[in-house]
Amino acid sequence: MRILVVEDDVNLNRQLKEALTEAGYAVDVAFDGEEGHYLGDTEPYDAIVLDIGLPQMDGLSVLEEWRRAGKTTPVLLLTARDRWSDKVQGIDAGADDYVAKPFHMEEVLARLRALVRRAAGHASNEIVCGSVRLDSRAGKVTVNGQAVKLTSHELRLLSYLMLHKGKVISRTELTEHLYDQDFDRDSNTIEVFVGRLRKKLPEECIQTVRGLGYQMLDFE
Ligand code: CA
Hints:
Keywords: DNA-binding, Phosphoprotein. There is one protein chain. This protein has helices at about 10-20, 35-40, 60-70, 85-95, 105-120, 150-165, 170-180, 185-200, and strands spanning about 1-5, 25-30, 45-50, 75-80, 95-100, 125-130, 130-135, 140-145, 145-150, 205-210, 215. By secondary structure, it is an alpha/beta fold. The chain has 2 domains: about 1-120, Response regulator (Rossmann fold, 3-Layer(aba) Sandwich); about 125-215, Winged helix-like DNA-binding domain superfamily/Winged helix DNA-binding domain (Arc Repressor Mutant, subunit A). The protein has a 5-stranded parallel β-sheet with strand order 2-1-3-4-5, with helices on both faces. A 4-stranded antiparallel β-sheet has the order 6-7-8-9, covered by helices on one side. The longest helix has 15 residues, at about 105-120. The structure holds calcium ion (CA). Calcium ion binds near residues 51, 53 and 54.
């Protein structure tokens, strides 16, 4: 899962990036509204954390522009104060949720998890695919009830495939959603990680759809 953080407060931006990276997301950051708007417009994020008070272009205008252009990426708004008018304006502008500053990082993480999950059509934190069970809140995977140890890269890849189970996902889409913009993108990396996942999970779990990509299907 790849997240964009648009926050002009340098310290807060860094804290968000660190916490989100630790939670297993690939994270890009922007420090003003124009840069944030550009990145959100051109890169495929799974969710965006957007501050309201930004230089160059304020957060609400950024959000309105994205929505006008048809962007449906889930947006979590950071409101400066616990002001009801900010929240109403934010929701009207197309925000999916908001957190008032100062906030606990755990709350931002929980709200983001819910946004990403709901955008993919899942009501619960737990996604099941055959004998594989993913608890996205705890970041834990089990096969037939037995815990499986995955690296953060493997977990990221599996989470994306499971969130979009049934859908064929191309290597390009995986690369775009699993790595931040500074990552040296080499599509062979994806194959390596898929290979490792297949060794840790039931073999039929991740199907290769020739020429198109990968797909997870419910299996017995
Ligand atoms: Ca600000």
